[in-house]
Amino acid sequence: MKAEERIAELEEQVAARLAEKAAWQAQEQERREPLGQALTHIAQLVAGIHGLEGQGKQDSHNSSKPPSSDGWVHQRRRQRKAATHAAGGH
After folding, report:
1. Does residue 60 form part of some domain?
2. Fewest C-beta atoms under 10 Å: which of 39, 42, 45, 76?
3. Number of domains observed in the structure of the chain
4. In the chain, pLDDT over 70 holds for what percent of residues?
């Protein structure tokens, strides 16, 4: 085999390898795009969850919400103090 033939053969092999590499890179990019979109969506969902958690902890005592928006929270009633005098009559 002459040197020119060997050089031509090697150049063909290099061209084939470069084409394989370009095809592999295109496939890799196609795989990465949905992953990047999914990660962005997950980050948005996590941020939304944190916002909702913060809203759930707010009531009229720690925000500008009116007391009527506190919901059905049972507040403890004060116990009456025992009377010091006898019950009934004079």
Report:
1. no
2. 76
3. 1
4. 91
The range of the structural domain enclosing residue 36 comes to 3-53
Within a domain: 45: yes
Q: Rounded CA gap, 56 and 38, in Å? A: 27
The whole-chain average pLDDT of the chain stands at 85
* 64 domain-assigned: no
pLDDT in tens, 37-65: 999 999 999 999 998 887 777 777 777 77
DSSP state of 73: P
What is the model's pTM? Answer: 0.45
90-to-12, 80, 81, 83, 85 alpha-carbon distances in Å: 119, 21, 20, 14, 10
